[in-house]
């Protein structure tokens, strides 16, 4: 589903040059929930930005659904818009839009008609348990509620790939577990592939694979075949 080979990323130039990612390769199957771990500064966000097509590698190649990702910026933006959902640590909801409008927004970008996008967005808000807050703006919601809205927004277009950067870092233990469960439940039917950077060991237990980065190098690529959460699923 997602393959990347020999990915490297160097920021800056000359004396200020910093290689954040060094020759990273892996192959991720459809429907996997992959945790990306490693110490602060090890390159997790850098790798997610490359795989989310938000940034381009200095070297290496990415394939999505066995197609090499395009180099043309417009084609790249279109693919990102259609195929990839994002969840961030700070939720990144648009502050002037209601919860419902935030979830509708990715469908609007895809040209979905208003009545259909409203219905789909509402169904997702209900599915993540915040339907009653549909008309409220992000600043009127708790962190856990905002992250549920952000999950609904990431999944509303049923993207084959969801990229999440520390989605539980701002949440208490109970909310964090609920958020992970929701991602798993909502992704199961559509066989969504998740790639999640996290420092949270509770999340690793629920993932099908752990990728560990250290100083920009992939030091471990470990399938979690005996993972009870995945077996039960
Ligand atoms: N835009 C940038 N310009 C220059 N250097 C950068 C940039 N983004 C990241 N870096 C550097 O790349 C390295 C990897 O950073 P990255 O943000 O990928 O780490 P991380 O594993 O996500 O860390 P954390 O767990 O703290 O989020 C760090 O040394 C960082 O300073
Ligand atoms: Mg990071």
Tell me the fraction of residues in β-strands, as a range: 25-35%
Corresponding CATH superfamily: P-loop containing nucleotide triphosphate hydrolases
What is the ordering of alpha helices and beta strands?
A: EEEHEEHEHHHEHEHEEH
The CATH topology annotation reads as Rossmann fold
Distance between the termini: 20 Å
Spans of at least 5 consecutive residues whose pLDDT stays below 50 are 226-233
Domain count: 1
Number of helices: 8
> Structural class per helix/strand content?
alpha/beta
Taking all Cα atoms into account, the compactness measure Rg is 17 Å
Describe the protein's architecture and organization.
Belongs to the ABC transporter superfamily. Pfam families: ABC_tran. This is ABC transporter ATP-binding protein. GO terms for molecular function: ATP binding. There is one protein chain. This protein has 233 residues and is an alpha/beta fold. Helix content is 36%, strand content 27%. The protein has helices at 44-51, 73-83, 99-109, 114-127, 143-155, 173-190, 201-204, 228-232; strands at residues 2-11, 18-28, 33-37, 59-64, 67-68, 84-88, 161-165, 193-197, 209-214, 217-223. A 6-stranded mixed β-sheet has the order 6-7-8-3-9-10. A 4-stranded antiparallel β-sheet has the order 2-1-4-5, with helices on one face. Strand 7, helix 6 (173-190) and strand 8 form a beta-alpha-beta unit. The structure holds adenosine-5'-triphosphate (ATP) and magnesium ion.
